[in-house]
Amino acid sequence: MNKRIATLLPVMLGALLLAAVSGCTPDKEDSSPKKPEGKVIARVGQAYLTLEELKASIPSEYADIITREQNILYVRQWINTELLYQEALRQGVDKEHDIRARLEKMRRDLLSAEIISRSVRGGADVGEVAIKEYYETNREQFVREAFTVRYEEIVVDELTLAWELRRNATHETFHSLANTHSKFRSASAAEGNVNPPYVPLDAIPPVIRTAIMAASVPSITGPYRAEDGFHILRLVGRFDKGTIASLDEVREEIVSRLSNITQKGETDRLISDVRSRSDVEFNEDLVPGIGGSAGGGIVDVHAPEVAHD
């Protein structure tokens, strides 16, 4: 979760800085500072960051989990970036030809990406039938790159408790006991997944790795002493390197592939539609580079055709 928040902070900062860049150019007729409405969290010169802007920059799915310390870090980043931005304006960096050209390119790229995002939004959902069909058609592509196991564990500090849990644990009750007693929970369990994850063997601590290799499949074994406590293991499966991965193992990868295919199709249709209504030409003979042959003058690109890689 912390990694997801760390990834979110630059996104939040970028959203507010785009607003700042568009709003920090003084009006020629009235360059007096204008304090915005709302509660001001930070100010650098005439640039303000309000509580309302901060909240608006946080995606709704993160609103209840982002911490005060993370928000403070974000505001400090905003202040530092605003200081550097205003210094660049003071030195006239924004007036330099190369910088203006790069800013214009960024503007074009941003607006192009936004129109694509609006057009394909909601159109990249992948159904279960499509996932299964893709898996069955492309099974040979999903080969395990490492020896893999499926297991879950209960880790406790006291040996007496470990033996008690071991005696009472069954394959049906193990997950519930782990949620109640274990010091640690796997990422999949924390997200509500009751099925043990697929884990490369070399990613498992040596003591637990040895126990897993010695156990039968399926089985519940232990307790085993390790540096972080006593481990009780529920082993579900062991899979050799080079074998075909199961659908559950590669589901997220398939969803990503199918989403990209869908998005590309929607993007191609959007470009085709816009092109059919636009005045476009391509003088192929003027394109420099080594190899290839002249295309024979101006190429009419009114036709709704999309080039593919």
Features:
single chain, alpha+beta, two-stranded antiparallel sheet, 10 helices
Question: Explain this structure to me?
Answer:
With 309 residues, this protein is an alpha+beta fold. Helix content is 47%, strand content 15%. The strands form three sheets. It has a four-stranded antiparallel sheet, sandwiched between helices. Strand 1 (40-44) and strand 2 (47-50) form a beta hairpin. Helix 1 (2-23) packs parallel to helix 3 and helix 5 (128-137) packs across helix 10 (247-276). It starts with a helix and ends in a 9-residue tail after the last strand. The model is unreliable at 19-30 and 303-309 (pLDDT under 50).
Mean pLDDT: 82
Number of helices: 10
Q: What percentage of the residues does DSSP assign to strands (E)?
A: 5-15%
* Radius of gyration based on Cα positions: 28 Å
Major sheet description: 4 strands, antiparallel
> What is the molecular shape?
extended
Question: What topology does this entry show?
Answer:
Elements: H1 2-23, E1 40-44, E2 47-50, H2 51-56, H3 68-90, H4 97-120, H5 128-137, E3 148-156, H6 159-168, H7 174-181, H8 187-190, E4 198-200, H9 206-214, E5 219-226, E6 229-239, H10 247-276, E7 281-283, E8 298-300
Antiparallel strand pairs: 1-2, 3-4, 3-6, 5-6, 7-8
